[in-house]
Amino acid sequence: MKVTEHIEKSNGRTQFSFEILPPLKGQHIQSIFDNIDPLMEFKPPFIDVTYHREEYVYKDVGNGLLKKQVVKKRPGTVGICAAIQNKYDVDAIPHILCGGFTKEDTENFLVDLDFLDIDNVMALRGDAVKSETYFRPEKEGHTYASELVDQIENLNHGKFLDDELQNTSCTNFCIGVAAYPEKHMEAPSLESDIHFLKKKIKKGATYIVTQMFFDNKKYFDFVEKCRKEGITVPIIPGLKPIATKKQLNLIPHRFHVDLPEALIIEVVKCKDNKQVRQVGIEWCVEQSKELQKAGIPVLHYYSMGKSNNIKAIAKEIF
To answer: At residue 183, does pLDDT exceed 80?
Structure first.
């Protein structure tokens, strides 16, 4: 079922969803199930599965020489989605990136998803790899997420890259895209960011999931700006409970979001990360309650492969 259909059938009830990471290469898929199992009591209508592109590492081969090697640390996105749908009878949403994909790769990826009866995709540009300062697309790939959305929507109308194909069938993907209540780090302004978000919606995206935020006012203000610009699709808030003191510096640096001063003060007062985890849970619970009271259709949690704190939050909300 499509995300938009789940929202329509919820009858105004706020639903619970979350995102997981594929396990590191060499680990068993049971590690994924072990984190999903405790959250199934909250009846998630869908679960997101991230995609991780290749990275470049340099290995010492002796005599002062280095060999460039391509590695993929977290493969298995499509397989995990198929396993989730089979095991839990819950819709799985694979992330698909511009980075690391040619247009042909993208088309073949989408064909596989269609054959697996996967109804939703999250279309993202993706970040630059560690060896690059700025994002660089593949030679025959997409530069922007809007272009990726356009290709997916073309397939939804039976339009493949090879225009000589005949009697092509249409896919029927519900397309999600990302948004940034505090603007994307590369955007010159929030208004500019919303302009390009609107472009993704015009190309065919039908719902939005936001980057994490820790101040609900920023989310509400962002939604208001989007509505004024004519963006009417559901805007699902992405939430993450802070869990370690290190994240006070890591989250603003890596995700370019601000932490409220009140949250910073509470975390600094903690003696250890066990106390930080509890502060993070309580803060996220309050965020969730306010969003739920506002009638937000879905609350989406970034689990980062850990389900204990997400379960503690969900128990208070759902």
So the answer is: yes
- In the structure, what pLDDT confidence band is assigned to residue 130 with cuts at 50, 70 and 90? confident
Q: Which two tokens stand for residue 80?
A: 């995990």
Whether the predicted model's global pTM rises above the 0.90 cut: yes
Q: Is the pLDDT of residue 78 over 80?
A: yes
CA 311 to chain CA centroid, nearest Å: 19
Q: Residue 72 is which amino acid?
A: K
User: Quick check: 305 pLDDT over 90?
Assistant: no
Alpha carbon distance 203, 170 (integer Å): 17
Structural domain of 198:
3-317
Start-to-end C-alpha separation, the chain: 21
The number of folded domains in the chain is: 1
* CA dihedral (217, 219, 224, 228) positive or negative: positive
CA distance 262 to 182: 18
CA 216 to chain centre: 19
CATH of the domain at 308: 3.20.20.220
> 261-269 and 247-255 are packed helices; what angle lies between their axes, rounded to 10 degrees?
150
3 state DSSP class of 124: strand
What is the rounded CA–CA span in Å between residue 298 and residue 271?
34
Q: Are 283 and 263 in contact (CB under 8 A)?
A: yes
- The pLDDT confidence band at residue 73, using thresholds 50, 70 and 90, is confident
